[in-house]
Design brief:
374 residues, mainly beta, Jelly Rolls, 2 domains, 9-stranded mixed sheet, globular
């Protein structure tokens, strides 16, 4: 069956050997994209993956190595990927196209649902799934996210994770509500989390709560998936504003559902070596472990970014002094503000950041529901 071909994993080098997951990726001879970002996943170079009957490529960006795996797969018009059983939960985000997915205990059985560009859904572990492109003229491109690198570090046998008959599909409960509308549940800091397996359009999602601690008058939504270790969040912030700098652990893969802007990433003590990441819809980047990063909206409309989270142990926030993981506007590098104004000027725009935010470390944006503009 697809992906279950015996793949030799060489562990003879001990700690110095190439990781089992890297060996698995290299076996397929597909493009493996490295670096800090991909400006457009919709035009990224792919290669033919015979076992999956599609064009595909792996992402191995700085900050995700050994923690999470991301792939881009392209399904030709009117085609379906061969059914596959995967031993881990996997998030799928639709970069372009429309189609259907069937998830069940065996090939051709179970729950079928439709998706479109910017849909997001989770395929539960140990289930067999088939993904089809319903368009007869346009390819469909999907971005996937899973924890396979960590799993293969513990069990360096690909056949354990793909089409393994001993993995019980009934361990994943597939009731009729598994792909129904998401539901809100109480969350931390007065914000709700939305729990569900299917989100139809992340660019149109408007169930958002104020995200005061990150500035810019931004809002966010936290997303959890039923019975899954996966979770993610999406942040939305107004035109001509930018978020406070912050940092966290590795494995946070960020994809852009809409807007135009850039992000800046740097390692503490290396402020003169900042990495600038231009972004628009379908851009993707991963902040390296404990690097500060900051997001800027230079478009005329709201910008939004969707971040897939690693397991909670990789969050990387300081337990004693979480404030050390954020930089207030009052303490930021002046070059940050200058670059923001410069990029807006190229587009005939001016900053919408209030002067008070740069003077008062306790400044807080007022939201519309409170009589403000945001």
């Amino acid at each position: 069956m697809p992906l279950a071909t015996k793949i030799p994993i060489d562990l003879s080098g001990g700690l110095q050997s190439v990781s089992s997951h890297n060996q698995w990726m290299e076996h397929w001879k597909l493009p493996i994209h490295t670096g800090y970002y991909i400006e457009d996943l919709r035009t990224m170079n792919l290669g033919w993956w015979e076992e999956r009957k599609c064009q595909a490529a792996f992402l191995q960006l700085s900050g995700q190595e050994g923690v999470c795996e991301s792939r881009v797969v392209e399904i030709a018009p009117g085609e379906s990927l061969p059914p596959v059983k995967f031993g881990l939960d996997e998030i799928v985000y639709v970069l372009q196209g429309q189609g259907v997915t069937t998830v069940g205990a065996s090939a051709g059985s179970g729950k079928t649902f439709e998706w479109q560009v910017r849909s997001m859904f989770l395929i539960p572990a140990n289930t067999t799934h088939t993904i089809s492109n319903v368009s007869g003229t346009t390819p469909a491109r999907l971005l996937t996210y899973n924890f396979l690198p960590m799993a293969m570090a513990a069990i360096p046998d690909p056949d354990f994770f793909f089409n393994n008959p001993i993995l019980d599909p009934n361990a994943a409960v597939l009731g009729d509500d598994r792909f129904s509308q998401a539901k809100a549940v109480p969350g931390a800091r007065g914000r709700s989390s939305w729990v569900g397996n299917f989100f139809p359009d992340m660019a149109a999602w408007d169930r958002l709560d104020p995200l005061r601690e990150r500035g810019a008058g931004g809002r966010s939504v936290s997303v959890e998936f039923p019975n899954s270790p996966h979770h993610c969040h999406m942040s939305v912030f107004p035109s001509r504003t930018y978020k406070r700098a912050h940092r966290h652990g590795p494995g946070f893969v960020i994809v852009i559902p809409g807007g135009e802007g850039f992000s800046v990433m740097w390692q503490e003590g290396q402020e003169d070596n900042k990495v600038y990441v231009p972004w628009h819809e379908a851009s993707c980047f991963v902040p390296p472990n404990k690097w500060f990063h900051q997001h800027f909206n230079v478009g005329a409309n709201h910008g939004r970014y969707l971040a897939f989270h690693p397991p909670i142990a990789f969050s990387g926030f300081e337990r004693v002094d979480r404030a050390s993981d954020e930089i207030p506007y009052t303490e930021e590098d002046p070059a940050i503000r200058a670059r923001f104004a410069e990029e807006l000027g190229k587009r005939g725009l001016t900053p919408a950041m209030p002067d008070e935010a740069y003077k008062n470390p306790n400044y807080e944006w007022v939201y519309k529901e409170e009589g403000g503009a945001n």
